[in-house]
Amino acid sequence: MSGEKTEEPTQQKLKKARQEGQIGRSQDIGAWVGMLAASIMLPRTLGKTMDHAQELMEKIPDQIADPDVGKALAIFREALLSAAWAVLPLALTMMAVGIVAAGAQGGIRVATKLFIPKFSRLNPFSGFKRMFGPQALWEGFKALFKTIVLGVVLYLTMQDIVPVLMTAGQLPLASLLGVVNDAAIQLIRAAAVAGIVMAAADYFVVRRRTQKQLRMSKEEVKQEHKNTEGDPLIKAQIRAKQHAMARNRQMADVPTADVVVVNPVHVAVALRYEPEKGAPRIVAKGKGPMAAKIRELATENRIPMVQDIALARALNQNCEVGQEIPAEFYAAVAKVLAFVMSLKARGAAAGFHRNPNPTPAMA
């Protein structure tokens, strides 16, 4: 049936969908990649933070011994600035990861149409469909799979750290904190890698669902093609009007011609020669009915018509209206014009004439 959506969406449909925010993308990709980037940046950030904290702690005893509000505020301000500079690379990295992840999944675009209220979004039946449809089943499966994978990652990580914690009493505090810190970073990285794999699967599912929602029927494709390229009937009418206007312009210039070279019946080419403007120029040409109209106007305006079969065909085929004749036709056209001038000298130019020196067959 023509109403079945079996066709892939056109570029125009995809462009409109992007403008409306209907893009197949997974929000999890940015989150998990951001977590992985954070796990890489976090040790450096914590290290800098601890160094700055240690420097500030060394100043506190002096402040306690000699209290001063100005110095205390300076220490507090320095602590805030140190924390901000330490966290800034991590924040910029997370922001860059989010932008890149969004751009890689279809570009970054503000869909203003999503801010326009639509009552169809409040339809309870549509809400039930989303809650119990295939999309809801996939979201439920995804949540369950996340829980299982993260549980396995946590179990494997804790399996390595528990024996160390059991002997924590025999380790210095710094060593114990280092072990816990390494285990936490390892846990975050393992969870992030597993999350990225799940997010990639989610991306392909969401993209496939979006592409399916954007499918079009054959009738929609035809209609869009008409809207984009123009209705063939209207385009044909426009072309017909353009051709009619071009014919009318040519017909208006026929009375200004010096000679009409004819075939004698099927082809007619009107030439005008103005020495101060260069070579002879084509002012009108045509075949069939167009040639008949040119001959009719030539008769009405007493323009000489000269039969030269080879020249008429060559000019009609190789020259455009308004164009000067090419150099290869100079000699043949010059003979025709000289013949017309001799007729005018005798007062017998008007009417139909045969060229006494017809042009040999030419391209």
Count of the separate structural domains: 2
Summing up helix and strand content along with how strands pair, one would put the structural category as alpha/beta
How many strands appear in the DSSP assignment? 5
Q: On the 0-100 scale, what is the average pLDDT?
A: 76
Radius of gyration: 43 Å
- Uncertain residue ranges: none
Shape: elongated
Strand content: 5-15%
Q: Give, in order, the helices and strands.
A: HHHHHHHHEEEHEHHE
What order do the strands of the largest sheet run in, or round the barrel if closed? 3-2-1-4-5
Organism: Actinoplanes italicus
Transmembrane segments: 83-104, 143-166, 186-206
Region (Disordered): 1-22
Protein name: Flagellar biosynthetic protein FlhB
Summarize the structure.
InterPro entries: T3SS_substrate_exporter, T3SS_substrate_exporter_C. Helices cover 66% and strands 6% of the residues. It is α/β, with parallel strands linked by helices and 363 residues long.
Write up what this structure looks like.
Strand 2 and strand 3 form a beta hairpin. A 5-stranded mixed β-sheet has the order 3-2-1-4-5, with helices on both faces. It has 363 residues and is of the alpha/beta class. The chain folds into 2 domains: 23-213, no CATH class; 236-354, secretion proteins EscU (name from scop, 3-Layer(aba) Sandwich). The two termini are 54 Å apart. It is elongated, with a radius of gyration of 43 Å. It has 11 helices and 5 strands, in the order H-H-H-H-H-H-H-H-E-E-E-H-E-H-H-E.
